[in-house]
Amino acid sequence: MSRKSYTIDRRQFVAGAAGTAVIASGLGGFPHIAKAAAPIKIGVISPVTGFLGFSGSQCRFGAVTAIEEINAGGGIKSLGGAKLEALLADAQSKAEIGAAEVEKLNEAGVAAIAGSYSSGISLATTQAAAKYGIPHCVDVGVNDKIVGRGLDNTFRFGPGFGVITKLGVERLIDINNAAGKPTKSVVIVHENTTPFGSYMAGLMRKGLEPAGFEVMEVLPHPTPNKDFKNIALKIKELNPDLVIPSHYYNEGVLFLRTLQRQRVAPKAIYSVLGGASSQYRFLSEFPEAAQYVMDSNHWYNPKNPKALALRKRTEAAGKHYSYEVFLAYTAVRFIADGIERAGSADRGKIIQALASSTWDGHFMPYGPTKIVNGQNMAAQSLNMQIQGKEIEVVAPAEYMTKKAVFPRPA
Amino acid sequence: MSEQTRIAGWTVLLALLVLAPLAITSGRWIEFMELTLFVAVLGQGWNILGGFGGQYSFGHALFFGTGAYIQALLQFKLGWSPWATLWFAIAGGVLVGAFVGYLSFRYGLRGSYFALITLAFAEAFHVLSRSLVAVTEGGRGVALDLNLDPDRALTTFQFNFGGDFLKAYGFYYTILVILMLAYAATWWMEHTRFGAQLVAVRENEDAAEALGIDAFRVKLGAICLSAAITAAAGVYYTQKFLFIDPGIAYGPTKSVEALFAPIIGGLGTVLGPLVGALFLHGLGEFAKETIGLVWEDRPGLDLILFGVVLILVLAFLPRGLVGLLDLAWRRLSGAAPAARKGKADA
Question: For the domain with range A162-297+382-399, which CATH number is right: 3.30.590.20, 3.40.50.2300, 3.30.70.120, 3.30.365.10?
Fold first, then answer.
């Protein structure tokens, strides 16, 4: 765990000291106003080392950016402009280390925690935080069990598996129907090492078959996986209309590139929580393999200027604007809104404020938050498609930036 | 070091560990101790087979994962009490150990071949746990129901939401009891004919057999004991975190953690895994804190420092830290150098 601090040079110090002296002398009769509010510590747990290191670093960037922006905007106003202080913790891609970091953050006096990227780590950290009544907002983990265990300290601002998959199936059916039902046969390819891919495959199958799709095969693979040639050839042999992949970023890239190299060209590739399918990094590195790939995933409201400003800031920092960045960013913003409304850094009061949150000052396509058992019921995924050099939102209509190209051009 | 001195040392160490919560009220340091003792248990499991028996395993996650999964699945699928399932979990670990041991030792696999076969079995179980979805829940993992009722903390073996004492120290004492049993078993083994035979097999299997030792039976006994201890660590993990998936259970992390502690601490010594675990975790924490003070927000630098120190220990302390402590003790007490009993004498 380390503290994120902001250094000042000698000139800034002298100028600041002089300014402070002037203000302090003017406000001598109101010492309670002149006194700086104590910073409020926010724990940020991300797996920045280990096999989840890339995603964890993206999460950390998003969370720290949110804290910097809140501080630059005057801090927590209901607490006299109290600044937020980020206490950064590395879960090292292990659940037990994540839980141990919670113990440290508790003793460091955090008011709340944001994190911890994966479902497995988040299950451990939310449970450990619950021991001390620390409000914990899960940034990315989509396992529905995280918020379904009766822990009143645990919140998730984004959508879970159930909602994402349900919407993914419904929108696929809508898109297919609108295009005159060009796809019927389906192959699902999913990673089966972590809860994420396995849940997704099961739920997709359950949703697609009653809708008239024929699921020809479900092809699991481990994570990490270094070779998709066999799976690509199997798909080529089955020749489905539609391929539905679900894996983490590296496997997502490799899978889509292998399909391209093996000239496997289904009518559509439609992923749900595709690791690479709506990632600017993938688009910039492999634009040809990425064309017309569709994805139902976490996404921001593309018409919201705040979302576009964060994208600009992220790219200026040399990073890709991935879902980890904006989910971690909004998780911290959600917590900050709770602290603002609670008017206190007391953990219990923050939990109460978060549980009754109707926050709508965010840039996600959710509308005002509605928390039920810790889950934001208003959260939803969007459907994206890579078209040219941009990731376009193709559903729902409210957030659409381009119409879906379905089936994709031969 | 005389037997009396060793016993006195052990008694003091044990008393310190039992009484530690009186001095350590910080949740952070209790958690640190818990993780350290957990790795020490994993390490002792590995040490019995690798340190005393000379059979280096690269796949001890096999036994850890089996214990963890059985503990989780019998509760999750059949609703059994965790106090009943733990015996099946340990027995399951022993059975898997006996199976792997029988196949490996029956066909005379030694050295790197044995290491590779254990690695292969761990990977095979990793694949099976992902693929047998109906039994293991596959990649989704098994998340046990959380008990939030403090009155049921003991019966559900879930101490995180128990009363003040259970919440703070319940799992510390759980892993301490497992550690004490594991170390008592190792102590017993070291002082029995079985232990002597195991060391003889390690030093020269052909010569041991020529003396009438049934090397196959001795190695099979060692792998079963080793598996039982490692599976018990799996039981602790499941009850503490209430979630297990194929990556946690059978991934390479636990196999590596299990062999590092005894190698650093001292192979073939009772105390080695505990000393190694304390050193590794202490060094990890120290590296994290000091690097954090100098370079903020530089994840991974602490791991580099950790790696460098590790290499130095491996290069300059072939008998591990226990060997170093032993040497220091002899210098201080003016005793003559000891005849080699284990890989290091302690």
Answer: 3.40.50.2300
